[in-house]
Structures are given as C-alpha cells and as structure tokens.
C-alpha cells in the first residue's frame, strides 16, 4: 500500500510538471524541443494517411452498403464478433416483385412472361452484386480497417508517449536552467540546500530524460517509416478491388446483353410465328392496306441495313407490303426507307 501511494504521488508530480511546462510553452516563457524536418514530414504523412484512409474506408462502405442503418448494424455485429446477417440486395427484391407481378398478369401473356424472365435476371444480378461486395470487403475494406485498428493505433499511441517524453525533457532543461541561474542558487540556499547538489541532480534528471526521449523518438521514427510499406500493401489491395469491380461490371454486362438478346428473339419469334385461325394483331391494326400513314407504337432498332429504325409516336408512310415476309411492311420516313414489323405500327390514314 505504501508503494502504491508513492507511485500515485510520483505520477501526480509528473502530471503537474508536464502541465506547468505546457503552460510556459503557451506563454512563450519556456523553450520547446523541436524535431528534425524529416521527422516532421513523417508525422505529417502519418496524419494524412490516417485521415484519408478513414475517409476512403467510410466512402467505400457507403458505396457497397448505401443503407446507413445496415452499416451501423454490420459494425455492431463485427464488434461482438458475430456473423453479419445475409440480406437480399435491392436487385433481388426487385426481381422477386417482378416475378410475382408476372405470375399475377399471367405467365402465358407476353408482358407477364417477360416480367418473370427479367425478374430472374435481376435476382441473378443481385447475387452477383453480393459476391462483388464480399470480394471488395475481403480485398480492400478489411485490410484498411485492420491497418487503422492495428498499426495506426500503435503509431498514435507511441506518438503520444513521445510527446510526453518531449515535455519531460523540456521540463528538465528548464529545471537545470533555473538551478544554474543566480536566482536558483539563492533559492536553494534559502531552502537550506546545496546549490551544487541541486545542479547535479538536475543534470542527472536531464540525462535520463534525454535518453528516454531519444529511445522513444527512434521507436516512433521506425513506426512512421513503416507507413511506406503500408502504402505498398494498400496499393495491392486497391488493384484487387479494381479487378473485382471490373469483373462485376463485366458479368453484369454479359448477363444483361444475354437478356436483351433473349427478349428480342422472343419478340421476333412471336411476330414470325404461323398465322392462327384468328386474325393477328398486325392484321387487325393494319389489315392489308398497302399504302397510308402509321404511328409507331414503340421504339424499334433495325437489325440490318434493309430495315428502318423507329422511335415511338413518330409517323411514317407505308409504301407497300414486304414481298418476302408478310409480317413486315416497307415504310418511309423522309428520304429513308426500309422494312418495319407490322406489330410496331398503328394505321392512322
């Protein structure tokens, strides 16, 4: 118990001494030990690395998980070391709704069957997105968070210790300076102390403080210089994230191109199907009129140079039936002429 009291008194004395030194530095009545320019540059780079790594980590998480509530939930699960909940992505929710709507409208109807098909693809995109999020989390987010929670925390802790050692060193310098002054010697004599003994004690304390400061400065310098290795590691992580992002977008592009082709082929397949006993939509709309004007019902992209691309609601002139395919007519817009599927047109004159 006696030892603890002495330790507590010693720590209190050190804290008071540091407070006095800081106050005198603020007032400009005491000198401050300055670090060399290289060390200062290392400190500035450390501060910049910490600030920007935190920003990059936060923004990357916001891109991958836009819902802030989910981000807080994930953070809490990580802190208590529990597995994150396996949530559906927005694309997967959209896919489920599309499939449900398609079943309601009728899977045999053109719109209903298309909704079901697109919904299945949206779910596939959602699965691909979850795989991409997991890949980026492993390759980029986790290494950056590990750096901040590990190496950077150690650096900040050692920097704090270095600052305390610097204050102790300057306090000892100030103490020795006062002991060597005439006023200090007079004060020592007044207190019944030997001025020479007081100066020797101050010199011993200064040498000890200088040694501790130098040792801590070297430890901190080595940690700060290690940030270069961290940057190299983060560069590799960045490359992995970019590759994961490129793969994700390439997969999405391939999936959507396949879907667009499938929907287009399904539409063409229906338009070229054999005529049923009942009159077709094209026959009911256009009949067998060889000439006249028609309004475009929806956009149409020409498949080759013999066809004419159309935009919804524009009016074209029907020149004649296509002799090679009864489901097409020859249409003209200004000086442009080409084949157009009948189902995309509505006769107006």
Automatic annotation (TrEMBL):
Pfam annotation, one family: BAR
One of the GO BP terms on file: membrane organization
Gene3D superfamilies in UniProt: Arfaptin homology (AH) domain/BAR domain, SH3 Domains
Protein family (similarity comment): Belongs to the endophilin family.
Keyword check for Magnesium: no
Keyword Hydrolase: no
Domain of life of the native organism: Eukaryota
SUPFAM superfamilies reported in the protein's UniProt record: BAR/IMD domain-like, SH3-domain
Full protein name: Endophilin-A
Organism taxonomic ancestry: Eukaryota, Metazoa, Ecdysozoa, Arthropoda, Hexapoda
Residues covered by the SH3 domain: 289-349
